[in-house]
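Morning, I've got a small favour to ask if you have a moment. I'm working through a protein record and want to make sense of it properly. The fold is given in discrete form, as structure tokens running alongside the sequence. Can you walk me through what the tokens say about the fold? Thanks so much in advance, here it is:
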Amino acid sequence: MVSDNGVFLSFVIPVYNAEKTVRQCLDSIVAQMNTVDEPYEIICVDDGSTDASPHILDDYAVKYEELSVVHAANGGPSQAREYGVALAQGKYIAFADSDDYYRDDSLSGIVREVKANDGIGMYIFGYCERNEPDGALTEHKTITSAGKRQSTHDFLKTYAVPEHTSLLNFLFNKVYRADVAKSAHFDHDVVLGEDALYNYACYAVCPEVYVGGQTAYVYENYSAHSLSRGRSLDEVWAAYKTIVQGIAPVLEQYGLGMQAQSLHAVYLIGVIHEYLRKPMVTPQDRHVAAAILRDSFNRKLLLSVRGRMGTFDSLLLRCARRGWGQLGLLLCDMKRLRKLF
């Protein structure tokens, strides 16, 4: 039930300037795993932190033999995770972020279910999200098929839809068999959505998954109201195109190519809605929005997304599919003036 090195589960945690939160993250793992009868390790990769995080990590490494620290030059979370995965000795690997934590009594259930389904390629569970400090937690639960093994085809058919992509794409709500995790790589050039690309690379080599029913992880997402997180519209659109191009072959591999088109439509609408949320738009913003709408990448877009799309979004998709950038921009201008839909 354990690897040749005796480790059952490895936690990989990139850390960058997380002096205020990393203790809670580590404590949530140590306190729970020390009550579980399976060997574990925590690999913290300090990604060039400039605050007290490196000292905190070193103190924890002295206190807990299961915890090791790698101090690296700043290269971003993807590079830090790759360092951690390369060093991981566990039969299974989990990712956590240094500003998040596991809910009390959640890890014992995860370990128990992973052991009961030994050899499973990926184990997926739900999570909670907090969008502002001291705000309420919103649960994102797994649906219908929770609590059983299933083919990756059936899993993707259920979850590769607009309303459930977060459960599909995030790293933190999964446990990976080590060979699956080590077979995939993080694209350091992707500015947004690298987690999704990594996960789809795992789905491609993993014919079966297990979906658990608990919401085990707390995601502290205080910037959830912005898709771009401070990035420009063209950066976000370029990233989303890369995601669609990366996930489409995997969905097609499982006979689900139409769902890739559906997700493409949702990403496009998301970027345009980001444009609409801007309190003031510049001529450059308008130029970028029009360019996105007339991008030839959109020619095969679905014109509806499973009946969940309103009139305005449906018209935007029609403009994008036909390359009518200026007409789409006019619709956006009218929407901004609250004269349409």
Observations:
- The first helix runs from residue 22 to 33.
